[in-house]
Write a structure and sequence with these properties.
single chain, alpha/beta, TIM Barrel, 13 helices
Length: 376
């Protein structure tokens, strides 16, 4: 079997607006998800689906161009089952841009699974668990708005709530954490995510210590991704586990975090890692280092979310509840059959490959351009 073409289509999906306004975190505002869908065609008539998604500054048209101009030529004509080889070829063709590489790579797994008639999780080692427990993220709002939304998600079945913090208004962050703990009660896990928003280790330590009486489960990425010395300092001076997110993008950066003692837990992404193969490598490295992992979200549409779920179902080192529910952060999804996400758990699709199919009507609507009120 040979790859005959790599086709890319830009799409724009609306994010949910839990407080009637554009979702905001320390990374900024996000009214839409500006992503690219990847189709990898083969000479046997099997087409693999992939998704290029990112919340960082290089996204949308830029990542699509990376696929079209640099990565697609590296894989066309090759055997799609040679996934490790093709990941290496893409790395040699273009440094970085893991999100673009992930879009092609997840389509390769989809092709191989379809060819063999088995779900991707079987290609990754088989089921370790039947379902993945989920965390749900609460974006910036007033403490009262955030607490009310958190309570709604608990009623929907989520047993772990993540509070977005790291804003310029430190007292608001602390008040939000306190209000959410009061709203969800003592039986629900509560974690906080700084999204790199705090400027120094000293500031982060001060803020976290004010939140610790709320029985927080962990603190995620309080400092900029490059500040591993600062992350290690925060870790030594707080009473809860520290999780690295943006500091871990690929196996090399994961090794840096491990060596420098910059985290207790790793947040692993399929997209940031460059695909399922590198994500598995990060899981294995962290397991050898005694560091549990969870799976993070951009948030993805249905294709990317399905890839995450297949990964989580097969990994032995999955620890804290994961964010494999990106579709829940959008007003609708583009899959013909929705992923099974219910009562705070995500379940793997049962079909071969990623086990998903695009809804052509939603897809046609999403590819026409961003909604007119996208910035409202």
């Amino acid at each position: 079997m040979k790859i005959t073409a790599v086709r890319t289509v830009p799409v724009w999906g609306r994010r949910r607006r839990p407080f009637g306004m554009v979702t905001r975190t320390a990374l900024g505002a996000a009214a839409i998800s500006d992503y690219t869908i990847v189709f990898v065609d083969t000479d046997e008539g099997i087409t693999g689906l992939g998704e290029v998604c990112s919340v960082f500054k290089r996204r949308g048209a830029l990542l699509r161009a990376d696929v079209d101009l640099a990565l697609a030529p590296a894989v066309v004509g090759e055997d799609p089952s040679r996934i490790a080889f093709l990941v290496q070829k893409m790395d040699l063709a273009l440094d970085g841009v893991e999100e673009a590489k992930a879009g092609i790579e997840m389509a390769l797994w989809d092709i191989v699974g379809k060819k063999l008639g088995t779900p991707v999780y079987n290609l990754l080692g088989g089921k370790v668990r039947e379902r993945i427990p989920l965390s749900y993220s609460i974006p910036f709002g007033t403490p009262e708005q955030m607490a009310g939304f958190a309570a709604e998600r608990v009623k929907a079945g989520h047993r772990t709530i993540k509070v977005k913090v790291g804003s310029e208004d430190g007292p608001r962050d602390v008040a939000a954490v306190k209000a959410i703990r009061a709203a969800i009660g003592a039986g629900v896990k509560l974690r906080v995510d700084g999204n790199m928003g705090w400027p120094t280790a000293k500031h982060a330590i001060r803020m976290i210590r004010q939140m610790e009486p709320c029985d927080i489960e962990l603190v995620e990425q309080p400092l900029p991704a490059h500040d591993l010395d600062g992350m290690a300092e925060v870790r030594r001076n707080i009473g809860v586990p520290l999780m690295a997110d943006e500091s871990i993008r690929n196996p090399r950066s994961a090794m840096d975090v491990i060596r420098r003692g910059a985290a207790d837990i790793a947040n692993v992404y399929v997209t940031e890692a460059g695909g399922l193969l590198n994500a598995m490598r990060v899981f294995a490295m962290c397991e050898a280092a005694g560091m549990p992992c969870m799976i993070g979200s951009m948030p993805e549409f249905g294709i990317g979310t399905a890839a995450q779920i297949h990964l989580g179902i097969a990994m032995t080192n999955l620890g804290p509840d994961s964010d494999t529910c990106g579709v829940l952060y959008h007003e609708e999804d583009l899959l013909k059959v929705p992923l099974r996400i219910e009562n705070g758990f995500a379940y793997p699709p049962a079909g071969p490959g990623l086990g998903i199919e695009i809804d052509p009507q939603v897809f046609d609507r999403w590819r026409k351009g961003p909604p007119a009120d996208a910035a409202a």
